[in-house]
Amino acid sequence: MPIDDVLFIHYQWDMPPPLTCLLRRSYDPAALLANHPPRWRHPYKQLVFDLACPACARHRGTIVLTRWAAAELPDAVALEPTEAVDLPGYYDYRAPSDAVWHVNFADPQLFVAYGSRLLAQDELQAAEHPLLGCLREALVAENQPALTEDDHGPTPVLVQGVERRCAIDTAPNLDAGRVYGLYGNRFAQASADQVRSAVRALEPPGRTNLISIAAPVGSGPYWPAQLRRILVTAYTGFAAAVAESRQAWPQAATEVRTGFWGCGAFGGNRHAMTLLQLLAARLARVDRLTFYTFDEAGRDAFRTGARQLDQVVSAGAPGEPLAALLERVADLDYQWGTSDGN
């Protein structure tokens, strides 16, 4: 059950314009699970839940969910020196969790496929953090929008303090019979034993903070309006994470961990999504951006996108209109790619 109900909270510090929080909910995790249990539509998701959350499991802490209106971008270019680090592989959720936020590559409908046969990035996070499904069920029961975007634009959803109760190994493992791994559509094609062998329950569970933002969909060239919307989406989510971190952990540096958001099933351009996330982080005054690049090709793509951001920034003047910088981004003529099938 929600502990509080606070709407239209405005945060403002030394970076205009202010952010608007549309919805805030705090949940006791044990009560959340009891009152809004997840609804599993595939037996393997039920299997993972049973392994991660046995009946004897104890749930502690508080989960805070917030939903944010699309922010106005700053009028002028005022970029802070965000530390950017690229790492190989995928999220490892290494400690600490204070002021550390992982990007959830969300659907416009928040956690909508958590109980389905799929196991792409959004569904994998929901499987490892099973109370995310409960959050969706709670919002639906309360007639609240379980959305990361609406008719007015992106509405990022932040989740603070949700338990990570298991780790699922989605990589290929010949010894375990998982020849092609479990990621994406392969999850439902595996056997129950193969799924079971890939799940490692975490005791004690970790805690994760998430920024749920919906990735764009498109084809052909990236149009200026689309580039701007992607930037608004990332900037709103990142700026909200900075605001929430300053409230909860005033002495800690804010770190955002992300990757090639929207570049898998939707075929997004890796260079574009790197540049725009780095730009959003600097506009939002994120202290550190950690970017997971998967492999050497991903590392090269990240560094190319970072280099392109440096070029478009250096081509302008300090304090110039942000619109001028975005025009130079559009001049890079980014093109959409193809889906990876997941």
List the helices and strands and how they pair.
Layout (H helix, E strand, L loop, with lengths): L8 E3 L7 E9 L1 H7 L7 H10 L10 E6 L14 E5 L12 E7 L14 H8 L2 H11 L7 E2 L2 E2 L2 E12 L17 H4 L2 H7 E16 L9 H25 L6 E4 L11 H15 L3 E5 L3 H19 L7 H9 L12
Parallel strand pairs: 4-11, 5-9, 5-10, 10-11
Antiparallel strand pairs: 1-2, 2-3, 3-8, 6-7, 8-9
Helix pairs in contact: 1-4, 7-8, 8-9
Short note summarizing the structure:
The protein has a single domain, classed as Leucine Aminopeptidase, subunit E, domain 1. The chain is built from 10 helices and 11 strands. The protein has helices spanning 29-35, 43-52, 121-128, 131-141, 186-189, 192-198, 224-248, 270-284, 296-314, 322-330; strands at residues 9-11, 19-27, 63-68, 83-87, 100-106, 149-150, 153-154, 157-168, 199-214, 255-258, 288-292.
Describe the structure.
It is a single chain. The protein is built from ten helices and eleven strands. With 342 residues, it is α/β, with parallel strands linked by helices. The protein has one domain (9-165, 208-330): Leucine Aminopeptidase, subunit E, domain 1. The strands form two sheets. A nine-stranded mixed β-sheet has the order 1-2-3-8-9-5-10-11-4, sandwiched between helices. Strands 6-7 form a two-stranded antiparallel sheet. Helix 7 packs across helix 8 (270-284). It is globular.
Keywords:
342 residues; Leucine Aminopeptidase, subunit E, domain 1; nine-stranded mixed β-sheet
